[in-house]
Recover the amino acids of this structure.
């Protein structure tokens, strides 16, 4: 079983690989500034993403950060 930290590292490596290979067609936020703005916005309101879809709001910081780095590719 992998830890939350290991999962986050794997997701970051995957996203970096996608960006490096130019496989960002599905990304809404393709530039670093756009990505960072989306990351900040998602982290500022992530509870709503869970509540609005009837999911339990996570409390584990690794789980939250992992979800955030993934969401920031598409969060508007």
């Amino acid at each position: 079983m992998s830890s939350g930290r290991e999962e986050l590292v794997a997701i970051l490596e995957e996203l970096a690989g996608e960006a490096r290979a130019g496989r960002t067609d599905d990304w809404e936020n393709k530039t670093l500034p756009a990505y960072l703005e989306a990351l900040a916005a998602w982290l500022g309101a992530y509870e709503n993403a869970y509540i609005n879809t009837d999911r339990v709001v996570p409390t584990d910081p690794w789980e939250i950060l992992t979800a955030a780095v993934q969401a920031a590719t598409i969060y508007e």
